[in-house]
């Protein structure tokens, strides 16, 4: 019976993590793009008095993120 070395066990663990880790990184980048596209829409919604709570319900954005969009709004 062959013994597995710690280095081999670490390599196996890294190999197991890699596919899902890469998928998560890809999804986070995609989410960043969606968040960027949402910012002006959130600011516009706030200007017409859609509540922060409702925007949060519709977008799953945190209130802090919504407030930040409001602060950054030039309009």
Q: Could you characterize the architecture of this molecule?
A:
With 75 residues, the protein is an all-alpha fold. It has one domain. Helices cover 80% and strands 0% of the residues. Helix 1 crosses helix 3.
The radius of gyration over CA amounts to 21 Å
Residue runs with pLDDT of under 50 for 5 or more positions: none
The DSSP helix count reads 3
Number of strands: 0
* Major β-sheet profile: none
Calculate the mean pLDDT score and round it: 95
Helix and strand succession?
A: HHH
Helix content: over 70%
- Give the class from helix and strand content and strand pairing: mainly alpha
Topology:
Elements: H1 6-47, H2 52-59, H3 63-72
Could you name the key traits of this structure?
single chain; 75 residues; mainly alpha; 3 helices; rod-shaped
Concise account of the structure shown:
By secondary structure, this protein is mainly alpha-helical. 80% of the residues lie in helices and 0% in strands.
């Amino acid at each position: 019976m062959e013994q597995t070395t710690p280095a081999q066990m670490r390599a196996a663990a890294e190999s197991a993590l890699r596919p899902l880790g890469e998928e998560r990184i890809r999804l986070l980048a995609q989410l960043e793009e969606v968040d960027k596209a949402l910012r002006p829409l959130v600011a516009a919604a706030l200007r017409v008095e859609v509540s922060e709570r409702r925007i949060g319900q519709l977008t799953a954005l945190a209130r802090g993120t919504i407030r930040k969009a409001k602060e950054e709004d030039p309009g």
